[in-house]
Amino acid sequence: MLRLISATPSPYARKVRIALAEKSIPFELVTEVPWNSTTQTPKHNPLEKLPVLIFEDGTSAYESRYILEVIEAKWPEPALVPTDTWERLAARKVEVIADGVCDACVLLFWERHRSPEQQSQEWIARQRRKVDGGLRALAEIAGDREWVVGDRFGLADIATGTVLRYLDVRFPEHPWRSQYPNLVALSARLEARPSFAGSVPVPQVISDKVV
Ligand SMILES: N[C@@H](CCC(=O)N[C@@H](CS(=O)(=O)O)C(=O)NCC(=O)O)C(=O)O
Fold first, then answer.
1. 51 touches ligand 1 (CB under 6 Å)
2. Atom of ligand 1 lying closest to residue 49 CA
3. Which residues, 6 or more positions from 127, have their beta carbon under 8 angstroms from its beta carbon?
């Protein structure tokens, strides 16, 4: 059985969970805390990050963007990336922006885990700028169209939907809902899909000291 190492808050893992669900690919969800010493992730990814997709032969794929490319190659229908080269590249650019906002949220989250005197306000401000800039770009790209890129649901919607809901977990005070009504409407449409409803992110308990 195909296995996916995931974590309950992970937006990167949620992209993969949604893609597998949208393609009706059966898999075992292995939920863990990659920040605890009990994690199995390093056995399958030398970079020690989840998500990790583990195939029946024991080989693994890691880095969500790469995992999604592998899934698209192995199970092409229904397609989640446009066939047109430039539309496909537009969708991948949306994923770059969305992942970049998630990356900034992760850095912000850990900076805030440091003792107040250790926290760098400059570093926090820098990450917040990346979140604000990325959301602004996503709002401009999405506009008021039904789908973020092209004329059907796909990768760009998965990436955008997952980062928006991830903010509720890691950056709940961010005012994106008042800033971007178009993203609020898009998020509501996407979260109504069974693949999204079945993978809503929630915080996890981290027992080890990480920073
Ligand atoms: N670029 C990676 C990021 C993955 C990532 O940062 N995963 C986190 C967990 S979560 O933030 O997504 O919940 C992790 O495993 N971190 C462990 C580590 O960085 O050592 C991807 O897209 O897969």
1. yes
2. 15
3. 104, 105, 107, 108, 111
Q: Is the dihedral of CA 70, 72, 74, 75 positive or negative?
A: positive
CATH 3.90.226.10 fits 85-193, yes or no: no
What pLDDT, in 10s, does the model give residues 71-129?
Answer: 999 999 999 999 999 999 999 999 999 999 999 999 999 999 999 999 999 999 999 99
201 in ligand 1 pocket by Cβ < 6 Å? no
Quick check: 137 and 182 in contact, CB under 8 A? no
- Round to whole Å and give the CA distance between 10 and 7: 5
What is the rounded distance in angstroms from the CA atom of residue 210 to the CA atom of residue 23? 36
Check pocket membership of 99 for ligand 1, CB cut-off 6 A: yes
Query: Has domain 2-74 been given CATH number 2.40.50.840?
Result: no
Rounded Cα distance between 115 and 185, Å, is 38
Domain boundaries, the chain: 2-74, 85-193
ipTM topping 0.95: yes
Contact (Cβ atoms closer than 8 angstroms) between residue 187 and residue 138: no
